[in-house]
Inverse folding.
């Protein structure tokens, strides 16, 4: 059974940092590109960035480029999202996503609140 589990969310002040994790199980997690998305209340889910299997390359949306970093630890089937210089954007839920065959899998999400 394919499963993605995010963790690491919480409350952080503007300008602070937070590190999210996505752990995959039920398939060879290390062989698939993994994307992070986020969704604020009342807004569409948006792509934050992706880490590719090919060369461990990464790509980010313009809104987070230079502040967020995605990394992978294949030994623990974990993809992390390091978020620095967080902006006061209120509450957002972060999700990881994997496209496995013809199926798209999402985790349950982890909530991040950036507020003073």
């Amino acid at each position: 059974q394919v499963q993605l589990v995010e963790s690491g969310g919480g409350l952080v002040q503007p300008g602070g940092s937070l590190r999210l994790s996505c752990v995959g199980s039920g398939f060879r997690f290390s062989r698939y590109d993994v994307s992070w998305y986020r969704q604020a209340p009342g807004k569409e889910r948006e792509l934050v960035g992706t880490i590719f299997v090919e060369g461990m390359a990464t790509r980010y949306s313009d809104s987070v480029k230079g502040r967020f970093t995605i990394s992978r630890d294949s030994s623990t089937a974990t993809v992390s999202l390091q978020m620095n210089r967080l902006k006061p954007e209120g509450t957002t839920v972060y999700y990881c996503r994997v496209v496995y065959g013809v199926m798209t899998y999402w985790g349950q999400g982890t909530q991040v609140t950036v507020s003073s």
Notes: The chain has a mean pLDDT of 95. DSSP finds no helices and eleven strands in the chain.
